[in-house]
Specification:
This protein is α/β, with parallel strands linked by helices. The protein is 37% helix and 20% strand. It has two domains: 274 residues, Aldehyde Dehydrogenase, Chain A, domain 1 (3-Layer(aba) Sandwich), CATH 3.40.605.10; 194 residues, 3-Layer(aba) Sandwich (Aldehyde Dehydrogenase, Chain A, domain 2), CATH 3.40.309. Helix 1 packs across helix 4, helix 4 runs antiparallel to helix 7 and helix 10 crosses helix 11. The mean pLDDT is 97. Bound molecules: nicotinamide-adenine-dinucleotide.
Length: 509
């Protein structure tokens, strides 16, 4: 274990001020009262930001609706040009924005840079998409009739995001929504509002380079759950894209359905990996490590359950323990650190209670101890491995912390069934060099998740594919493929260019 000196884990006021200044958000961070934003690195106060009131939220939604009315009239490729400039602004600010993600969310530098790269990637994707918002032409059964399917902008998109991907989730939604002709109202996590200010600044920069966009094209709502609830309830916002826990999605989904809105839900995962006898362990072990301890186990796609075939179980467990023993845990800004802090004390306490419970059931529990306790309100932990061996129980809940539960299996069909036998359905993976096993895992009778990977881990998706999962993960899809359709309304158009009025299905009237 490459432990670091606790004394060096501190966010210096000068460093914090420089980070805020580099992104031009110092002023927004010195409100006399409001939301206190703490860094998970050392628990220190980063900023106090003013929160929105019900009246200011109402005004922002009105501005967004007005911006939509104008923005939708711009040709989509022009909208794409704006998103291209947004991507350029993100490129030029990549290091600064990533540094703020690290300060505010505690991500290690390489992951924070990766998150901003993901924003740039989705902008690039959306630029191309702006010339490809294709519909269909459909053969009509009636003479001299033409049928077509056309995609129109839909309205303001409410984006509610979680703390763990504090900027990428906004970009996934915003880049697509903007080329689709929608305005965006963003309610970032109350744990990470500063990055939202930074993104809004970069957005304004791109707008200036574009020659102006409608006022209110991007609105940011600062607040907690109540601000989100107001956004979710407002009928002027036809689409709500909400990313967070399944508990949140259960409430939001019902509320949006109640007013016949459209919800895109990206909720919790409880992701499993299967390691088969033929697996190349030189790939599987680092994939497990990245999946289980990356972002300190705080990814929706983190590997939480591991099913290892009996023939290789002991070897895999042994190698995992050896890898865990060399993990560099500590200040996420320091080069070489692989595991940064948990987001806060609440996350730490939940992790401890889950481990306490596991100690009564599992064969062996290793890790989970708090580290650098002397740093104060910062919560560093040794990632935990919980060995369940032949226990046929499963882990039903997502715990947003680095806990890997390991089970032994003998029959692949059984391992796949256990992969599926949880409420969530986000990501899944198998390591095997047996083509039949790989095909079974990805077949209709295989993994029931939105993401199924072969010989790579559960986390770290590319933006080109549609991202999301089934069941308690919410069923939403964002990012690549045809996820853009979620941000538009489909209109079936039939035109009669003849001189008679034939009715469909041969009806005479
Ligand atoms: P959270 O559910 O506590 O909060 C997420 C967001 O929802 C916050 O902005 C919060 O203010 C808001 N919110 C909470 N209750 C609300 C309500 N009733 N109405 C409107 N808004 C409400 O989640 P978190 O702790 O910030 O993030 C961790 C969770 O997010 C994990 O479960 C993780 O798996 C999930 N997540 C999922 C994805 C995905 O794409 N599937 C991506 C990232 C995170």
């Amino acid at each position: 274990m490459l432990d670091r000196a606790a004394s060096s884990i501190a966010v210096k006021a000068d460093d914090r001020d420089a980070a805020l200044k580099a992104l031009g958000i110092s002023e927004a961070c010195t409100a006399p009262s409001g939301l206190a934003v703490h860094s998970p690195i050392d628990g220190s106060l980063l900023a106090t930001v003013a929160t929105d009131t019900p009246a200011s939220i109402d005004a922002k939604i009105a501005r967004s609706a007005a911006a939509f009315a104008e923005w939708r009239t711009l040709p989509a490729p022009r909208r794409g040009e704006f998103v291209r400039l947004l991507g350029e602004a993100l490129r030029s600010a990549k290091a600064d924005l990533a540094a703020l993600v690290t300060l505010e969310a505690g991500k290690i530098t390489t992951e924070a840079l990766g998150e901003v790269q993901e924003m740039i990637d989705i902008c690039d994707f959306a630029v191309g998409l702006s010339r490809q918002l294709h519909g269909l032409t459909i053969q009509s059964e009636r003479p001299e009739h033409k049928m077509a399917e056309v995609w129109h902008p839909m309205g303001p998109v409410g984006v509610i995001s979680a703390f763990n991907f504090p900027v990428a989730v906004w970009a996934w939604n915003a880049a697509l929504a903007l080329v689709c002709g929608d305005s965006v109202i963003w309610k970032p996590s109350e744990k990470t509002p500063l990055v939202a200010f930074a993104c809004a600044r970069l957005f304004a920069q791109a707008a200036a380079a574009f020659g102006g966009v409608p006022d209110g094209l991007l609105e940011v709502l600062i607040g907690d759950r109540a601000a989100g609830e107001q956004l979710v309830a407002d009928p002027r916002v036809p689409i709500i894209s909400a990313t967070g826990s399944s508990a949140m999605g259960r409430i939001v989904g019902a509320r949006v359905a109640d007013r016949f809105g459209r919800a895109i839900l990206e909720l919790g995962g409880n992701n499993a990996m299967i390691v088969a006898p033929s697996a190349d362990l030189s790939l599987a072990i680092p994939a497990i490590l990245f999946g289980a301890v990356g972002t300190c186990g705080q990814r929706c796609t983190s590997t939480r359950r591991l099913f290892v075939h009996g023939d290789i179980y002991d070897e895999v467990i042994d190698r995992l323990h050896r890898s865990y023993a060399t993990l560099a845990i500590g200040d996420p800004r320091e080069e070489g650190t692989l595991v940064g802090p948990l987001i806060d004390g609440g996350a730490y306490r939940i992790m401890q209670s889950v481990l306490d419970d596991a100690r009564g059931k599992a064969v062996r529990v290793v890790g989970g101890e708090r580290m650098y306790g002397e740093v104060g309100e910062a919560f560093y932990v040794r990632p935990a491995i919980v060995e369940f061996g032949d226990d046929i129980s499963n882990v039903q809940e997502e715990t947003f912390a680095p806990i890997l539960s390991v089970f032994r299996y003998t029959d692949l069909a059984d391992a796949i069934a256990r992969n599926n036998a949880v409420p969530q359905g986000l990501s899944s993976s198998i390591f095997t060099n047996d083509v039949r096993e790989a095909e079974l895992f990805t077949a209709a009778v295989g993994s029931d998740c939105g993401i199924a990977n072969v010989n790579l881990g559960t986390s770290g998706a590319e933006i080109g594919g549609a991202f999301g999962g089934e069941k308690a993960t919410g069923g939403g899809r964002e990012s690549g493929s045809d996820a853009w359709r979620g941000y538009m309304r489909r209109q079936t158009q039939t035109t009669n260019y003849g001189a008679t009025l034939p009715l469909a299905q041969g009806v005479k009237f």
